[in-house]
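Hi L.,

As promised, ATP-dependent DNA helicase:
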Amino acid sequence: MGDGQFPTNDEIKLIDNFKSTGDLVEDVYGTCFANYANWEQEVLHRAILTPLNATSALYNDTVHQRISENKVAYTSIDTVKDQVGEVDFSNEYLRSRNPADLPSHKLKCSYEIYV
């Protein structure tokens, strides 16, 4: 990538001379916000790839705040039943865990946004 050549095997197209204005969500999804009537068709061809789940969650929250009117939030169970030989975990600790294969403790959903 450093030399401007990136093998894509015709699977993805990288835009030449793409420059961000500093608002990556606006740069990637800007026309989707403007063309809300065709949101589903517009958003299918766009993505923000991040190396960390935490960064991905921040971008997801930003998109969710900008587009969604019909928001619903679901939370996971954040308590452990006291069992013999088990360690008690605080609610704060359980809420802070974010395993890679599971959704976050608070899953935000909307009609317009894919999970």
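Residues 24-110 form one domain.

Thanks again for sending the construct details.

K.
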